[in-house]
User: Fold this.
Amino acid sequence: MNITYKHIKSAAELIEGRVLRTPFVPSMKFSELTGADVWLKLENLQHTGAFKVRGALVKLLSLSEAERKAGVIAASAGNHAQGVGYFARQLGIPAIIVMPKNTPFTKISRTEALGAKVVLHGNGFMQARDHALELSNKEGYAFVHPYDDERVIAGQGTVAIEMLEQKPDLDAMIVSIGGGGLISGMGIAAKVMKPEIEVYGVQAALFPSMFDAYHQVVTEYSGDQTIADGIAVKEPSVRTHAIIDRVVDDVFLAGEIEIEQAIQDYLEMQRIIAEGAGAAPLAALMRNKDRFKGKSVGLVVSGGNIDSRMLSSILMRGLAREGRLASLRINIPDMPGVLAIIAKIIGDSGSNIIEVHHQRLFSDVALKQTQIDVAVETIDRKHVQGLVDKLCDAGFDTKVMSTTAVEGER
Assistant:
């Protein structure tokens, strides 16, 4: 079928009461930072923590009784898997999910907890998808594609209907693109409900497949993994590409550090947990502030299923980038009382010592000297540089090991 607004509206009626009508809330913090009137569509609060349940439910409800009895199979890095598993269990449909071997443990365990059987295969989505299709043909399972399916696209498009019902005067939407199912459905619905609205997509710079197709360019591919694993799709879908060309106003790229920063900003400024794919629209907005200044912009926080260890690492790396956490290597004379002097200088500067490592044996300093590595909590980069200056002025040669914390060192 040729997907129209009518199909998306029917999908919205079909899933009403079964999926959450997630909040669409204003963000004062991000509005102040960007000059836009920023609103957040919190699909990270959806069942299973992502928007994927919408399309999964629409597809599963379309299956015949024989197809339901045979069971379904899907390929996913996590969120689509949980969406299929969540409603397959409710509908009594056996489900098998093929996931890449590098899928975060949290997504594997959550999918299994929903009653689905998980099969790990391949090093990325495409290999997992191909294996799922093989099993589908061999065993007779109904294949539930995460984005290249009309009913799935219609289900995802219901996000736009909700956003424009919740805020009719919205000027623009920014949506993550992996395979393009979400933005395709949303773009179709949005352009019918409000033809003048602007719809923008964003991809991880390491996986620019739809960016390249949309702009008719070839971007050098430079990685196998991204922090935004939910949108790590190497090949654009012909179906979604055609829709995106028609209903999307532009497609942006977001770098890894930009997405990391957006995840950190969501947590620190809004107390929102967003995974990489869910944070990418904020990264795109921050990079393109001038384009959206003065406009009312809706960001889709598409998911919040991020591994706890990854989130912890992102926060610590962010603190180091901002100079709020720094690692200093200090050369000192190997004699009693020096550590106390160092500690006093650091304390008097208003910094807090977190960790000290005393290096005597494995260093290239003179025999009567030694090195200490000190992790300190500080205010910002300027504060770090001031501390370095104080230590150097006191005769202690100091080098910043967390090189992103300050521009220079002494």
